[in-house]
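From the pipeline queue, job 12 of 40. The input is one protein chain; the requested action is below.

Action: predict structure.
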Amino acid sequence: MIGIGVKTARRLTISGLVALCMFTALALALGYANKARCTGPLFDEWGRSEPAYQERAYGDVCYSDIQNLWVGRDIDRHVFPYVHGGIEPDGTLYGGVVEYPVLTGVLIWVGAWFADTDAGFLALSALLMAPFGLAVAWWLGRLSGWRALLWALSPPLVLYAFHNWDLPVVACAVAAVFVVHRWTSASLRRRATAAAVLLGLGFALKLYPALFVLPLALYVLTEGRDERRFDVRGALQVAGAAVGTAVLANVPFMLAGFGGWLASFDFQSRRQVDISTNSIWYWGFRHWTEYEGFQSAMSVVSPLLMLLSFAVACAVGWLRYERTGTYPWIQVSAAMLCGFLLLHKVHSPQYTLWLLPFFVLVAVRWGWILAYLVADLAMGISIFRWFYLNMAGEPNGIHDGFTSQALMIGVWGRAALLVGLFVAFLAARSTVDDFGPVRSAFKLRSESPVP
């Protein structure tokens, strides 16, 4: 009989987890205070902050999509999303439609219910989302110990926690990892199915957790293998649970108002590479973006390159499985997210919150993490100062001042680091569990730590 202990992250005590959540609460409070600088002190007839709302939002670097979208999406009118709306030929949304998946639309509606100004909407939305940020800290602490301070004390949490509606979807992704690796009383298939449900809910919030379903299914396929065959049924069950959850979340809105439901997807499909997208496609091809042919090409090139990066990540993960005996689904998921962030047409600043938990869950070198956080900080501040210079008609070229220079350092530094992180994630070990559950002597024969 062979007895082998599985190496896991050092567990935090309850007091440690509470301290972690307190640090996170402090970061969230600072994040709210930063965004609230843009609110008031006066309000116009629509509840929009005055004076000079847009100039302050960009110039003082306190812009948030939450406050900005108070006017223009019928949020201020408390219209229930999707049911009565649609999209105009020019791409304008109307009738309560927002450009996000359905569960985020519901969160937006709930956050606006008792608000009559953009300041109230920001405050209520922050109260609604803060518990998700605290939950992420708790789960990351349970998964990876004090490394979770990377979430609790990070600049991105202060900058972006209440920039958009991203904390709930990050919570779904982290909860999925937690269920797989810490819900030890259930079988792997049950844990993975529950995680797939969470990823399906994440799809109905912001889409990106759907990327992680394939690595999770491959993990179940290989971890459930015995001496003769893979666990195909378990893998299909994972995929089916994720798809079924996403469908169930969307079907009520499809039935209540198909045109409004479809409009949110139509809006994103029509979105062009422009000044608002902040992706490498804009900064690398700024002078081409006015040509229709370029925009049409990007609608094909960007998705194809993303799919290629996903395939490469999954294939490398399979090679690692053949060497170690366990499919590295967390690391593959992190690499796939890097491919998405790098190659998608849109790279909004708050997307860093999606990547941040993987700095906790995967043991990449600290240099990668520090460099990325510095590049992201440079981009996250300078992009809004650059918008302000653009709005004010002031010189904003690369030779005109530090704002543009810092922006280019942030944009291209972050892009280069995403390429490096794609490789680094695939080579690193998980801080959650080096090898996953050990089930049989068959699984033990080839397991060894990955340097």
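Job complete. The radius of gyration is 22 Å.
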